[in-house]
Amino acid sequence: MKVAIVGTSNIGALKYAAPRIAALFPDIEVTFFGLPGGKFDMTRIKGTLFGPDRSDHKMSRLSRRVNGTPQIDLAPFDHILAIGDMLGLPACLHTALHYDIADWPARSGKPLMSEPAFLSAMEEAIALRADHLRAQFGGLPLHAALAPYPTTAVVPDSPLHHQPYAAMATHPDAARIEHLFHQRLIAALQARDITFVAQPPETIAQPFLTKEPYGIGSQDFRTERVILNDHRHMNADFGASLFQAFALAIGATRQT
Amino acid sequence: MTRSPYSSLPQRAFWRGGVAGASPFPPDIYKPKFPVTRDTRVFTAGSCFAQHVGAAMKAASIKVIDMEPAAPGLPPETAKRFGYGIYSARFGNIYTVKQFGQLVEEIHGAKPALPVWERNGRFWDAQRPGVEPEGLASPELVTEMREQHLSAVAGALRQADVIVFTLGLTEAWEYKTSGTVYPTAPGTIAGDYDPEAFRFINYGIIDIIEDFTALQDALAPLNPHAKWLLTVSPVPLAATASGQHVLPATIRSKSVLRAACDMLAEGSDDIDYFPSYELVTSPAHGQSPFAEDLRSVRPEIVGRIMQTFLSAHGLADAAGEDAQTDAADPQNDAVCEDILLDAFRPESRE
To answer: What residues of chain B, 81 to 110, have a C-beta less than 8 Å from chain A?
Structure first.
């Protein structure tokens, strides 16, 4: 079975888990193709070729160095996992932080927003990004995973502090928001013939935050052994875990 | 040559050259009584055409007040559908002077009759049913959200230098025992029409002048210095309950509003009138200024009207392109509850 993992710098976690993936799933041949976030976002498939425009010499050179090829032909793959987009999550969380949802009991003195308005905002934010993702990959069958939640390192008041995720650590309705978001995300992706691969529960500290150890030892997807240790990129443990979730979704059997 | 009082009048005073043979958007059609600058804090309200006015002013970097704005991240279609970023607060369309006055009086503690309307187990704020298209879960939520809304409206009115108000309708539905009016007829979005409880009213000029005076009185404790810029919506009635054909009913309604604006503007240096109605209905247009429904004003016409307004205030350079772009976007159609009346046409009922 041939599998392509395509995405932003977040593919690094899986790329550096490749030996473990190969040991666990010897029947799966995995190919990785990554581009920096902004460039990935602008990239659209042409025919079955995915990659930076050939006129973008700088990015083509980078892609050749990192991926071994400037573009990847996705036609031969049985399954494609796209990873890196947040699929509307930041917009949903910013909305949740700005308002008290009137239908829910918690009040913090913020402006009130009705639950229908909040859910409409969520659905629209997801739809905008899901449409974008579908357009990036044309009509190819696709699996999609969110970029990992940032680690709990973003919560304290430190250089890594990062909103809107930090505030979710204490938000009284974080679990409810996560549930609603996943419900709507799965439906939106299904409607576009995309299967959602959720972040594995064992990696999640609390809604919208990854356990801090998964961020330790994360490496730059472009250059092995360049340690990031930031709050956004995850290590090979995370990558192996996410791949197993993906393998489950495509019906692959793990080596026992 | 014999002398005539007309002999020294400018071109704009003559139909030929002022309208016939002239641009449908003559730059000298409007001479502001008072300036609107980028530092002017503008409160916008009115019928659905007023949404274009506010959008164009924002595009021109005028300080349009918004006390219940869309938060960063709130997607645009949802924001519009739920009344965020359309007016200076989420009050939805205000079609009549009486309705505006009621809103301000409510800030001072007045209670409109039947404030909550129900349909299929959901509940609507009867004074702004359009801003929650799916309704709310309970009457208590309607009340809680309205209290917060009234506080926002009061804050917006307090800081206004100029209130831009587009008068839209003379027809309304009134609760008999209290005189409370509503932006939509009961039973249109929610609620139920009980002929024993509600009655149709069609305001005349004197009614509107009196309602406007009451509105000014109610506003004074919040903001005694605000100036007014009135316009009349050129959008025809979607339906009339007057018993007349909808065309004369529309002309009657617009004529009354136009005359009332003239009386108000003539009587005060602090009340101005901008002729958006005239700019749409001018016979100088080479083709109909209305879209295929003969009701919505074509976006490019709206853009030119707003450019005429901004030019008169010396703000067109910065605004022009944005204002045009905004208006030309078909997704920027104004949110109008009154078109919902269309669903009650005989062929729609069958």
So the answer is: 81-82
B90-104, B294-308, B318-332, range with the lowest pLDDT:
B318-332
Note the ipTM here: 0.89
Cα distance between residue B289 and residue B139, in whole Å: 42
Quick check: B324 pLDDT over 60? no
Distance CA B107, CA A177 (A): 34
Token look-up 């605000």 returns: B226
Chain A residues with CB under 8 Å of B82 CB are 113-114, 116-117, 120
- CB contacts of A117 in chain B (<8 Å) are 78, 82, 132
DSSP state of B290: B
Chain B residues lying within 8 Å of A109, measured CB to CB: none
CATH number of the domain encompassing residue A135: 3.40.50
Q: How many domains does chain A have?
A: 1
Whether the pLDDT of residue B330 is over 60: the answer is no
In a domain, A237, yes or no: yes
The reply to whether A205 falls in a domain is yes
Closest CA to A9 of A29, A30, A33: A33
Report the pLDDT value the prediction gives residue B326, as an integer from 0 to 100: 46
What would the mean pLDDT of B287-296 be, rounded to a whole number? 94
Is the model more confident about B44 or about A162?
B44
User: By residue range, what is the domain housing residue A228?
Assistant: 2-87+124-149+177-249
